[in-house]
Amino acid sequence: MPDLFMNPRTSTFLESIPFGRELVVLCMAAVTVFFCLLGSGKMAVSESGVIMTLPPVLLGMSGKAVPASEGEKAILPSDTELVKMSYQGGVADLVSAQIVLAGGEKRSIHRPEICLPAQGWLLEGGHVVTIKLKNGHPLQVMRLTASRPITLNNGSKASLENIFYYWFVGYQTTTPSHLERILKTNLDMVLHNINHRWAYVMVTAPVLKGLVPGGRDVSQTDELLQHFVSEVAPAIMKTP
Fold first, then answer.
1. Residue 79 pLDDT grade (very low, low, confident, very high; cuts 50, 70, 90)
2. Secondary structure (DSSP) of 101-114
3. What is the distance, to the nearest Å, from the Cα of residue 190 to the centroid of all Cα atoms in its chain?
4. What is the spatial distance between Cα 149 and Cα 185, in angstroms, rounded to a whole number?
5. I want to staple 77 with a disulfide (CB 3.0 to 4.6 A). Which of 84, 105, 194, 199 is the partner?
């Protein structure tokens, strides 16, 4: 189950303080460094919380492995593990999934909000949603929407909207929040001498209503993605 450090009241309180969230992160980082300098012995690296294999078939859709792009190869550290699959069921059901697992360098893991604009997406907003998984456990994920201009086969211009769901997976913990991931990392380093090997999982689908025959609207695309997450999350996470 998700193991979140901050409750909604704490989050609201921090948001009321100028630079409150950033201050907490900096304080935790300083405490971590202090205790690490005092301590002796190596920091243990935790086991990853994910299985780096996506199902070949999901929801009746066939998956096809997608190789890392040249841009991903150039940006990600060489010890980063990455798997991507593209799932399709007919013309209108398209879902992409990927898992990124950090190696020794932590810059492998970042918020998708950082890289999506570089890929041409205009972010429109995001919020946390809770999905009931196939095994009955709840999972909190971040839901983002973004759009970008496209050219149709007939030469006309249109706007393509995509919905993205992502979450971070550590050792026996998950979170949809980048800030909470940092706080959890620092707390476990200080209190338990554990250095999380984080991964993030992202699934995405285009809103194809009006673009292809039988295309789903926003609510139908959300329904597809939530059903997809409910099936794929228990298959790739070592603990619920």
1. confident
2. E--SSGGG---HHH
3. 25
4. 38
5. 105
Q: What integer pLDDT is reported at residue 152 of this predicted model? A: 85
Distances (CA, A) of 154 to 40, 148, 149, 151, 157: 66, 18, 15, 8, 9
Length of the chain: 240
Q: Could you give the residue ranges of the DSSP H alpha helices within the chain? A: 8-15, 20-38, 70-75, 112-115, 178-192, 218-236
The pTM score is 0.80
Q: Cβ-count burial of 112 within 10 angstroms (0-12 exposed, 13-18 middle, 19+ buried)?
A: buried
- Per domain, the residue ranges of the chain are 8-236
DSSP 8-state code for residue 117: G
Distance CA 179, CA 168 (A): 11
Phi and psi at residue 177, to the nearest 5°? -110, 130
Mean pLDDT in the chain?
A: 83
pLDDT for position 118 = 78
Q: Give the rounded percent of residues in the chain with a pLDDT score beyond 70.
A: 79
